[in-house]
Structure formats: C-alpha cells, structure tokens
Amino acid sequence: MKKIYKSQLFKISSLNSLSIILKIGIGLVTSKLLAVFVGPSGMALVGNLRNFMSSLETVSTLGFQNGIVKYVAEIEKDKLQLQKFISTVFMSLLLVALLLSGFLYFFAAFWNYRIFGSHFEYDFVFKALSLALPWYAVSILLVSVLNGLGNFKKVIWINSIGNAIGLLVSVVLILEYRTFGALLSIVISPALLFFVAFYFVNKEIAVFKIISSAAFDFSFIKKLSSYSLMALVSSVLGPLVFLMVRNNIIQTLDIDQAGYWETMTRISTYYMLFVSTILTVYFLPKLSASKDSQETKSIFWSFYKGILPVFIFGVTIIYFARFFIIKLLFTNEFLQVESLFFWQLFGDVLKAASLILGYQFFAKRLTIAFIVSELVSLGLFYFLSDYLMGLFGIQGVVMAQALDNFVYLLILLLYFRKSLF
C-alpha cells in the first residue's frame, strides 16, 4: 500500500479524480439548468452543436494535439528544436483557425441550417464561434505543450479552472437566454481557456517570445501529418456520425427521443472523464516514451489492474443509482432515459478497455491500422444504430454502441496481442 501511495500514477490519479469530481459537480448544475430551461428538444440541439464543435476543434488544430504531446516530450531538452517545433505549430494552427473563422462568419446561415435545421435561427451562434475559434485553437496548443513537458498537475489545474469558468458563463447565459444562451455558452467558454492556459504555460516557457517566423520548419508538419490523418478520422468523422444518428432519431422517432439519447450520452461523458483524462495526461506520454514491447506491456497492464477495476465498480454503482441520478441531474420529464443505462454502461466498460489500446496507435504513429479500425467501427455503429432503432426504438441506438465497442475491442486485442500476452 505504501508503494502504491507513493507512485506517480496514484498521485496523478488522485488529483485527476478531484478534477473530475469538480467537473461532474459543474455538470450537475449545467445539466439541471438545461433540463429545466431547455427540455429534451433543446438538449438535442445542444448535442448537435457539441458534435459540430468536436469536429471543428480537430480541424482547427489540424489533428496535431496528440502529436504535439509526443514530440514535445521527445525534444523538450533541445531548446532550438523546441523553438522550431512550437513556432511551426503555432503559425500553422493560427492560419487555419483564421481561415475557418472566415467561413463560419460569412456562411453562418448555412451552418445554422446544416446543424439545427430550417426551424431554428441561431446564425449569431456561429458568428460568435468564428470570433472565439482562434483563441480556442491556441489554448489547445498551449495545454498540449504543457502535457508534453510532463506537467500533469498543471494540465489538470487548467482543465479544472476552465470548467469553473465555463459553469459561470453557462449559468448566466442559460438563465438569461434559455436555449440560445446554452448554445452561446458552448462556443464562448472554450475560448476563455486560453487565458488560463497562457498563465500556466508562461511560467514554464515564454511561448510568445520564442515564436519566430524564421524558426518555421516544414519537416515538423510532415512528421505531424500522420497524427492529423488519425485525428481527422476519429475526431471529425466520429462526431459527424453521431450528428447523423441523432438526425436519424429525430426523423424516425422524434426530437424528444433524440434529447433522451443526448442526455444518456451526457451522463456517459461525465464518468468516462475518469478514464479519458488519465489516459491523455498520464498514459499517452508513457506509451510515447516506451522503448520496447515489454515496457508497453507493463503500461497496458498497469491500466487494466489499477484503473479499469475501479471504473467497473463505479459504473455498477451508477446503474443502481440511475433513477436518483436522472432526478438529480434532470427532471421527471427525462425518466425515460432510465431504459438506456444498462446498454450504455456495458458498452462504456468495453470502450474503456479498448481506449488504452487505441492510444498505442497515436503513441507509435500506426496510421493505416488506426484509420482502418476507426472506419470499420464508425460504419458499423451507423448501420447498426439504424437497423436496431427500427427494432427497439431509441434503446436500439445504445445497443448498437455496445455491440460496436465489443467488436472494436476484439479487433484491438487481436492487433496488439504481442504487446499484451
């Protein structure tokens, strides 16, 4: 016990858990506000915008996020290379973010129609997003650099403070403008993370002092291109598939059913933070730095023995507390969500088991294998959700997710068997 208590993983996991508890607490408040003031239909619109934002985030950062963590971890002691790397990435991301901002601002009506449909007029949300996007893109760069430097605690503090700021913005805007305010808070809050990230990163590296156009090195763009391809497949196509599935639910069932699925997805997001954050903050840098299959095997099994059992115990408690959770986070109008818990939780356990293996794709730049596995998984989920929704209604969508996660885990276990056994 003493050895476990003193381990870096335990310390980071403990701090990470406190961060997640804070984020979940914030989620309780925002979820309740959304439930009371926007209802199931508004929840569906919020879900559509969140999926669009996820795809836009990856495009605006060119999918470099995991690559930045890897290369900063590798070259942090070489000051000249680090300057070239940060300068190259910063200028590339800023240019892309500014171009995307122009498309969002001048074609706001088009994006409103594509994301929300013809019955809603929220053009201003996309104009606000166009102004916020460059700040958001740079904040992601700053956090990734800090993560690559191994400053796990500061990364967690940035996320925690950012979540707290997001709560304040959400409360004010939702109370004042209801559904419009909820949508506006989604696009404004992430941009405010820049100021928090800059404060912490500037203590480690004087980022804006080392950025120079003369230090731009295109070779780094070539090295990061494989990460870009991988991220574009998962982080762009993934949310777009979810957007298509949600629109299918609206057309086949109704917008309230889409809102119930978004509610279940929102609850899932809270507890999945425990796994996803510790993987990004702790395990990805470790996998990137591992030198042989034996070291990789040790990292994999430290996750399966230390993190996964705790996660399974947690989701078991969540299942038995599902009625309480729905009433606490939402309203009685959302009680139908209870029928979605079993398959969602079962699928998320399978997803958690596969995530650590999936991060090996990024750590070792296994581009083709990653793209093929992701395309198979996304295609399977889309067609299974359409088929099972016809048989079981909204429950068929979460059943499709669970089955898709099972198949994906089997594929990864087969592919990485030499690093596991």
Summarize this, please?
The chain has 421 residues and is an all-alpha fold. Helices cover 87% and strands 0% of the residues.
In DSSP terms, counting alpha (H) and pi (I) runs of 4 or more, how many helices? 18
Main β sheet profile: none
Helical content class: over 70%
Roughly what fraction of the amino acids lie in strands?
A: under 5%
Question: Averaged pLDDT, please?
Answer: 84
H/E topology pattern = HHHHHHHHHHHHHHHHHH
**What gyration radius follows from the Cα positions, in whole Å?**
21 Å
Q: Work out the number of β strands.
A: 0
Tell me the span between the first and last alpha carbons: 26 Å
Poorly predicted segments: 1-6
* Class by alpha and beta content: mainly alpha
Overall geometric form: globular
Care to describe what's here?
- This protein is mainly α and 421 residues long.
- Helices cover 87% and strands 0% of the residues.
- The chain is built from 18 helices and no strands.
- Helix 4 (65-75) runs parallel beside helix 7 (123-148), helix 13 runs antiparallel to helix 15 (341-363) and helix 15 runs parallel beside helix 17.
- The chain is globular.
- The two termini are 26 Å apart.
- The model is unreliable at 1-6 (pLDDT under 50).
